[in-house]
């Protein structure tokens, strides 16, 4: 099966896709975009969060064929260029506050926070916790992550 | 495995008729888990996300008809005033990422006794609209579930929509779990009070082989509530209502909780939701 979609602004095509595989597998293994992480494969951890037609979703729960003709933005697509000064404000805030430990949950959190701040430029702490309820950090670095979101909201 | 992608409802029904073994997939939040973990290998996936008719909602006479493909996110954003109990339940589904994809149609299709939408649909007296190339039928949700993960839906049918009264009464929902997100209910309870008809609706989740109603509890409460005066609900009535709800459950001991705990917790949820709903109705605390 062939899947064609717009990923980070570019039309991309994947061939020989097995109909039961996930969008996450297509992104990581077929399109060379390893930013979204593969962990729980059941929507629990949020490490694979990407935008699908503008809404954050768990890429592990989207069938590859469902992404055909759709628009996807991964964490790789948030920064306009490379280099720290070109990073999105959410990425810069995570760096500045040290909200990264092992780093595995970070890409999913960055996308989830990016979406939160697009919807709500000044979220309260309970709003932040609710918006990030689907992203697990097993290093338990949540306090730094909260700091990063507060910083990103004001930068 | 085949990937079937009908572009409209007629094509979807024709595809299901031709491939009755095909697994319908909308949000994918149940179906993809089974695929990712090798728990199921359907002969085909039937992708319903291109069927725009499934994502519509609107009134149908005295009823509100909500397409099976409306996501929990949209139920919360667009329909909180029209399906208040279901919207409360929707807020407890998974996480924002899950609510952006998952649908009530999928919840009904999975027919898990723990499905978060089911108690609210039971309390509201919902109908489930099933369709096939043979025609369309509307089944009371009270008759929809026949066993754990089993429903009256036949292999050639798809879930088109659910329908609830267009003018809801007061509805409440509560769920017990280990955290506020990403939790399969230990048990859950939905309550609907209709001041016009003085009827009480109930729904019990995750405490029986199917989602259940607490019929005796509902009849008791409907007879005992001070509908006219809106005075305080007597403590003995609150307690008895809780007992009857607990007694209506048919729970088992499992990894999420014991049967005894579930009965106890349901009695507590029943009393709490009653207090909230009565206050919502302007009743005395």
Structural write-up:
The complex is a heterodimer of chains A (155) and B (285). Chain A is of the alpha+beta class and 155 residues long. The relative contact order of chain A is 0.16. In chain A, α2 crosses α5 (142-154). Chain A has a five-stranded mixed beta sheet with strand order 2-1-5-3-4, sandwiched between helices. Chain A folds into two domains: 3-77, Beta-grasp domain (Ubiquitin-like (UB roll), Roll), CATH 3.10.20.30; 84-154, [2Fe-2S]-binding domain (DNA polymerase, domain 1, Orthogonal Bundle). Chain A is globular and about 45 Å long. Chain A contains five helices and five strands, in the order ββαβββαααα. Chain B is α+β, with helices and mostly antiparallel strands and 285 residues long. Chain B folds into two domains: 50-165, 2-Layer Sandwich (Uridine Diphospho-n-acetylenolpyruvylglucosamine Reductase, domain 3), CATH 3.30.465; 170-280, Enolase-like, domain 1 (2-Layer Sandwich). Chain B is 35% helix and 23% strand. Chain B contains eleven helices and 13 strands. Chain B has helices spanning 9-18, 31-36, 72-79, 84-91, 96-99, 104-110, 117-124, 141-144, 215-224, 235-248, 259-280; strands spanning 2-4, 23-25, 44-47, 57-60, 63-67, 127-132, 135-140, 145-147, 150-151, 158-165, 170-176, 187-194, 199-205. In chain B, the strands form four sheets. Chain B has a five-stranded antiparallel beta sheet. In chain B, α3 (72-79) packs across α4 (84-91) and α10 (235-248) packs across α11. The longest helix of chain B is centred in the last third of the chain and has 22 residues, at 259-280. The N and C termini of chain B lie far apart (58 Å). The chains are: A alpha+beta (155), B alpha+beta (285). At the A-B interface, β4 of A face α2, β3 and α5 of B. Chain B: It comes from Asanoa ishikariensis. Chain B: One of its GO terms (molecular function) is FAD binding. Chain B: It holds the Pfam family FAD_binding_5. Chain B: Keywords: FAD, Flavoprotein, Oxidoreductase. Chain B: Residues 1-169 form the FAD-binding PCMH-type domain. Chain A: InterPro entries: 2Fe-2S-bd, 2Fe-2S-bd_dom_sf, 2Fe-2S_ferredoxin-like_sf, 2Fe-2S_ferredoxin-type, 2Fe2S_fd_BS, Beta-grasp_dom_sf, Diverse_Oxidoreductases.
């Amino acid at each position: 099966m062939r899947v064609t979609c717009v990923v980070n602004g570019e039309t991309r095509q994947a061939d020989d896709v097995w109909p039961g595989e996930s969008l996450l597998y297509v992104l990581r293994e077929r399109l060379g975009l390893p930013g979204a992480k593969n962990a729980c494969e059941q929507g629990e951890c949020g490490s694979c969060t990407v935008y699908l037609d503008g809404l954050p979703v768990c890429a592990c729960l989207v069938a590859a064929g469902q992404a055909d003709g759709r628009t996807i933005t991964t964490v790789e697509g948030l920064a306009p260029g490379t280099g720290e000064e070109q990073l999105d404000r959410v990425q810069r805030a995570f760096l500045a506050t040290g909200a990264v430990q092992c780093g595995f949950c970070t890409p999913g959190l960055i996308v989830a926070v990016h979406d939160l701040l697009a919807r709500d430029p000044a979220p309260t702490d309970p709003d932040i916790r609710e918006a990030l309820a689907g992203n697990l950090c097993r290093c338990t670095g949540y306090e730094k992550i909260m700091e990063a979101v507060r910083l990103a909201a004001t930068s | 495995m085949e990937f079937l992608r009908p572009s409209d409802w007629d094509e979807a029904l024709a595809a299901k008729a031709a491939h009755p073994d095909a697994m319908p997939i909308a949000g994918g939040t149940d179906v993809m888990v089974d695929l990712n973990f090798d728990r199921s290998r359907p002969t085909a996936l039937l992708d319903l996300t291109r069927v725009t008719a499934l994502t519509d909602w609107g009134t149908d006479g005295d009823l509100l008809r909500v397409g099976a493909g409306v996501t929990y996110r949209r139920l919360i954003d667009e329909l909180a005033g029209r399906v208040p109990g279901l919207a409360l339940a929707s807020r407890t589904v998974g996480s924002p990422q899950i609510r952006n994809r998952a649908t009530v149609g999928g919840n009904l299709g999975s027919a898990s006794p723990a499905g978060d939408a089911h108690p609210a649909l039971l309390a509201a007296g919902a109908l489930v609209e099933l369709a096939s190339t043979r025609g369309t039928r509307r089944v009371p949700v009270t008759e929809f579930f026949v066993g754990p993960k089993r429903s009256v839906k036949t292999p050639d049918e798809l879930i088109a929509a659910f329908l609830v009264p267009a003018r809801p009464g007061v509805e409440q929902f509560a769920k017990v779990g280990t955290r506020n997100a990403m939790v399969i209910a230990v048990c859950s309870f939905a309550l609907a009070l209709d001041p016009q008809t003085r009827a009480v609706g109930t729904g019990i989740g995750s405490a029986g082989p199917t989602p259940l109603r607490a019929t005796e509890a509902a009849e008791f409460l409907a007879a005992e509530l001070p509908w006219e005066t809106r005075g305080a609900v007597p403590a003995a009535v609150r307690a008895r209502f809780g007992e009857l709800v607990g007694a209506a459950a048919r729970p088992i001991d499992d990894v999420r909780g014991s049967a005894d705990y579930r009965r106890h917790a349901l009695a507590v949820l029943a009393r709490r939701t009653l207090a909230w709903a009565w206050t919502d109705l302007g009743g005395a605390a």
